[in-house]
Amino acid sequence: MPAPTAFDHQATGYSLTLAYWMARASDLAYKDEAAIDIQAKQWGFDRVRHHRTGFTPPFPLEDTQAFTVASDGLVLTAFRGTEPREIRDWLSDADATRVPGPDGTGFVHHGFAKALDSVYGTVRDAIAEFRTAGQSVLFTGHSLGGALAVLAGARLYLEEPNLRADGVYTFGQPRTCDQRLAEAYNQGFADRTYRFVNNNDIVPHLPPEPEFAHVDSPRYLDSRGRLHESMSLWSRLADHLRGLRADAFDEIHDHPIRTYIAALETNFG
């Protein structure tokens, strides 16, 4: 079965098909607004809202970008990520300090919190405006965008449960918060968050433990692109070595969103 060509606006829960479309939406978040408008219409979304905010020093990234699209069946927000070299530098700098999390629960990476704060109000307002018929609400993002998708889901869940998202799909997401917030998040979202990790992608291993933790639930793409909902530690170690033997720079080459999309596509064959 080839990769799907039509966006399913009624899809809920977890499926390979929905994961594929969320990866495509995460990729689209890197494009300019005109390209997003055109693609959203082709996918069947009739409403689009763009979110973009600039920063001042010492924040090391120029801005945060996201878009929200809506149809009669779905409201989707996709957050833009960043390039591997940039996020490695970012995650190792002073902005990796922690600040209180949503509703005062646990702690989150300071840079992630600041990035989300800059667009959260417009994202929240767009969801409230577009969700006119009880549509499903999904968040997605790659790299930095994945961290923002998780934090947006956490804020709605902990601060405005009436707007709680129905699903969060992330790709190559860094660790985002401490263990306390991760546990609180998992209580409401472990069965609706799907965190994809591609073989040796370095970004999901940053920032370091134990200060930062991952939320559930991981999905692993192995060195051959096969998707696993669970994988033993030894199997993962063997697969890491297999990937590194094939490509000495696998930790970087496994991170781009197009690599995730290509791997997901192999699972439709």
From TrEMBL:
Keywords tagged on the record: Hydrolase
GO molecular function: hydrolase activity
Limits of the Fungal lipase-type domain: 78-209
Residues of the signal peptide: none
The keyword Hydrolase is annotated on this UniProt entry: yes
EC number, as in UniProt: 3.1.1.-
Full protein name: Lipase family protein
